[in-house]
Write a structure and sequence with these properties.
single chain, alpha/beta, Rossmann fold, nine-stranded mixed β-sheet, 11 helices, 11 strands, globular
Length: about 400
């Protein structure tokens, strides 16, 4: 296993509006809007408004020396494909070179995280239109790598099909890889999957089920513990941060763990009896929503580390040390150890100043709070450059 440490949150979200958004994984706890799960698949009957693809003609034309080939423009094109009875909408970002005879390029499918997160990693419940996926696609395009990002079901321009099942998310990923493999500008032998947060769970599950067979997989800020464990860990951390007494915290966490175990086994629990905090009650209700119940049961106790140990393709595990939504040690390192123990080709990269959405975060980790998550997509925020370098380097070597 190659391990790299680069460099010198719970994701906060604004309160949603309407009953549909109330069923998403947003919890109001101790006066703060906090996301209560990394890979929570709560149901939603309406997604956010999709953002139009960024124009491609603002890329600076690079000067080339005789015989030298460089990217002179990053092109974007709208993509549509069918998956599990739903038309999925996305954007393909790809480089145009100074030499039209350049061979097809490697390509990456970006799989977005949980909740109403669209192809750009933007959400109607999170202010700002500076999503990391759009920035990452453009950065990789400038380095000669094509990227396909898409609106998963019930987000952006992709319709809500009526219910949410894990198999349908895997069908979306399979369809996206099919689009890339058929594209004349893409090298079908160098296709990679990069899953962010919950998207990493989808990528691992698709490999575990042999739905896809990419040249490699990237797990970006992906949980290494079960969803049940992560939810309980996050809620406990937020209760402690809110100054709740230890005995009350332990009672809340114990109740929550029992409720999650019951839901995972197919039972129905009365959410109002699980917690005294309305946000936790809404979380439990969301996990049991009729149109998302099957997904919740499938994912709550699913083991990412076990899946990582079954991966047969090269794997990059990348996490920011300033990620408060998953933990670099409990999650990223655990995934890497599981893959390494099984003899996998794995590289672990921990970036000192990257947050959960891979952007550069100069604030000291001990000064970060859930409220910093509200600034994830703030105008002017940039990807951590070492995140981009690590991804480009890994793709080029594989």
């Amino acid at each position: 296993m190659r391990e790299v440490c680069c460099g010198s949150e719970l994701q906060a979200r604004a309160a949603p509006r309407g009953e549909d958004m109330d069923r998403w994984k947003v919890t109001m706890l101790a006066g703060s809007a906090l996301v209560a799960g990394v890979v929570l698949g709560a149901s939603c009957a309406s997604g956010g408004k999709a953002n139009a693809p960024a124009p491609a003609d603002d890329s600076p034309v690079e000067q080339t020396q005789p015989g030298e080939v460089r990217v002179v423009e990053v092109l974007e094109e709208a993509i549509r494909f069918e998956a599990a009875g739903t038309t999925v909408h996305g954007t393909l970002t790809r480089p145009r070179f100074s030499d039209d005879a350049v061979e097809p390029v490697p390509a990456v499918v970006l799989v977005a995280g949980s909740g109403p997160t669209d192809r750009n990693w933007e959400s109607p419940v999170l202010p700002g239109e500076n999503g990391s996926a759009r920035l990452l696609a453009r950065a990789l395009g400038e380095r000669g790598i094509a990227v396909l990002r898409y609106d998963k079901r019930a987000t952006g321009q992709t319709d809500f099909p009526g219910d949410l099942r894990w198999e349908d998310y895997l069908a979306e990923l399979e369809g996206a890889l099919g689009v890339l493999s058929a594209h004349e500008a893409v090298d079908a032998g160098r296709l990679f999957v990069a899953g962010h947060s919950e998207g990493g769970a989808h990528a691992l599950r698709a490999l575990q089920q042999e739905v896809v067979s990419p040249a490699g997989v990237m797990l970006l800020a992906t949980a290494g513990r079960t969803l049940s464990e992560v939810i309980a860990w996050q809620i406990e951390a937020q209760l402690v941060a809110a100054g709740i007494g230890e005995s009350r915290v332990q009672a809340e966490v114990a109740n929550l763990k029992r409720a999650l175990a019951s839901i995972a086994s197919g039972q129905t629990v009365r959410a109002s009896r699980v917690s005294m905090y309305p946000g936790v009650v809404r979380l439990v209700e969301a996990l049991q929503a009729e149109d998302g119940r099957a997904f919740s049961q499938a994912i709550l106790d699913w083991s990412p580390t076990r899946a990582a140990g079954e991966v047969k393709v090269p794997m990059l595990i990348l996490n920011g040390r300033k990620d408060l939504q998953v933990d670099p040690g409990l999650d990223a390192q655990a995934l890497a150890e599981a893959a390494r123990s099984a003899g996998g080709d794995v590289e672990l990269v921990l970036v000192d100043d990257a947050d959960h959405v891979l952007k550069h975060q100069p604030t000291a980790r001990e000064e970060l709070s859930a409220q910093h998550g509200l600034l994830y997509n703030q105008a002017g925020r940039q990807l951590d450059p070492q995140v981009v370098e690590a991804i480009v380097d890994w793709v080029q070597r594989h």
